[in-house]
Structures are given as structure tokens and as C-alpha cells.
Description:
By secondary structure, the chain is of the alpha/beta class. The chain has a single domain, classed as Cytidine Deaminase, domain 2 (3-Layer(aba) Sandwich). The protein contains three helices and eight strands. The chain has helices at residues 6-18, 55-68, 88-93, and strands at 3-5, 25-31, 34-41, 71-79, 111-116, 123-129, 135-138, 141-143. The strands form two sheets. A six-stranded mixed β-sheet has the order 3-2-4-5-6-7. Strands 1-8 form a two-stranded parallel sheet. It starts with a strand and ends with a strand.
Amino acid sequence: MPRIPRNIVDEMIAHAGEDLPDEACGQLNGRDGAVVSAHRVKNVEASPYRYSMDPLSMLKLENGREESGETLFAIYHSHVASEAYPSPTDVRQAFFPPGEVDREPMYPETYYILVSLAYDPPHVRAFHIRTGGEVEEEPIEVVELA
Length: 146
């Protein structure tokens, strides 16, 4: 079960709202299984229907994780008018090459978090995407920091 600090959940929701009418996207970094930071990434699709993370930003985040010893905890994005559940396009994008769902996903242990702005308050849900395109929901525990 992913444990995510309230301020990080609030940051993902704020990001989703600020990027309207387009989908927002980003990454959460972790250390020792705990989320430590949220990082907004430009959606180069600039679309309300799909996202694609800016490759240069992703490379910089990966290099930063290598230097800090952090890990990629989650990839997040928003759905502006639909449920917080991975779309068929979202599932295809979890594989390389995209759509090769019979392979292992690019990030098999990474959570995929969806923020849906179709609800008030927004829904935030986490998933694992598995070989074969299987989607498994993982309940989120939102934790308050002292």
C-alpha cells in the first residue's frame, strides 16, 4: 500500500488544476519506500486527452535520483473529465515499446497515480500495471506529517 504524505497529494491535485484544460503529469521520488518529493513534468502533448512527459526533464530527474539515492516511487497524471483509472492509452504507454503489453512494464514496481478532476473533491488512486496490461489498484494511505 503506498503511503503518501498529505502535502504531496495536495501538490498533485494543485498541479492537475493548474494545468487545465490539459492533463498534468509528474513523478514522485522515494527513499526507503517513503515518498519524499513531487516533481512536475511538462506534458509535451499539451492535451486534455493524453500526456507524454518531457524527455529532458525525465532524464534530469533520473540523474538526480542516481545522485541522491532516491528511487522512482510513482508516475502521476490527471484525467480532466474521466475516472481516476488508467485508460487503454495509459496502459499501452507503461510498456516499451508502447503497446507491447506481453513484456514486463518499463517500471514494474512503480505506482501509477491518477488524479481525476471529474469529482469534487478530486479522486486520487494508485495502480500497478502488470505484464499483459493487467491493472491492479493499490489503496493509498494518506499520511499527515508531524
